[in-house]
Amino acid sequence: MSSEQTDSPARLHGANRRIAYHRRALTAVTAVLVLSVLTACTSNDSLAQQYRAGDEKGYIAGDFQVVEIPESERGEPVVFDGVTEIGTSVSSDGYRGEVLVVNFWYAACGPCIVEAPLLEQVWQEYQNDDVSFLGVNTYDQPATALSFAKDNGVTYPSVIDVVDGRVKLAFAQATPIQATPTTLVIDRQGRVAARIIGQLASASILSTLVSDTLDEDVP
Predict the structure, then answer these.
(1) Strand order in 192-197's β-sheet?
(2) Taking burial as the number of CB atoms within 10 A of a residue's CB, which of 141, 146, 189, 194 is the most buried?
(3) Would you say residue 46 has pLDDT above 50?
(4) How far apart, in whole angstroms, are the C-alpha atoms of residue 95 and residue 168?
(5) Both ends of the chain: CA-CA distance in Å?
C-alpha cells in the first residue's frame, strides 16, 4: 500500500494538533465577541471609574444596583453647570430647594432607550411637586440628543457633556458612576440621596426614591 493511502502516526498527530489549535482560536474569538456585547454601554465611563473608593471597588459595571444614602451620611452639595441640547444654560444653583433627578445616558446605549419611558413616567408624576429632571448626555451632539428625545417621548432637558465631561466629573467626585445608564436622586440641598446604577427596572423604584426624598424635612 502506498504512502498516499496510509496515514502514519506522525501525520495523524499533526492533524490533531491543527484541529485543536483552530478550536482554541474559535473559542477565543467567541469570548471576545461576548465581552464586547456585555461592555457595550460602559465603554465611555473610564472617567467615573477613577473615583471608585472603599467597598465600591468590587462593583462590576453594568449590574443593577439601588442605594439610598441616609441624610447623615451624605456628602457636600454637588456643584455643576452646563448647556442643554437647545442651548440653555443650567447650574446646580437653579435646582436648590428642589429634588433633582439626574440621568446619565447616550443615544446608542440600549438600556438607555429601554428606560427612557420609565423616566418620563416618573417625571410626569412629579413635575408639579418641586421635582426636576435633568439628563446628562455623555457622548452625543445636540442634534442626536434632540432626535432621541423626540423618538422616545422625553420632555425634560439634557446637558450635552461630550466636550469636556465636567458635569459627569462633578457628580463622579460625589458618588460612583460606573455604568451608563446611571440615575441619581439629589436632595433639596444638592446632595446625592440615592443612586440607581444600570437600567431602571421599573418606574416604581425611582418614584419611591423621589417620594422618600421629597418627604425629608426641609432644613
Answers:
(1) 65-68, 192-197, 182-186, 99-105, 131-137, 158-160
(2) 194
(3) no
(4) 17
(5) 98
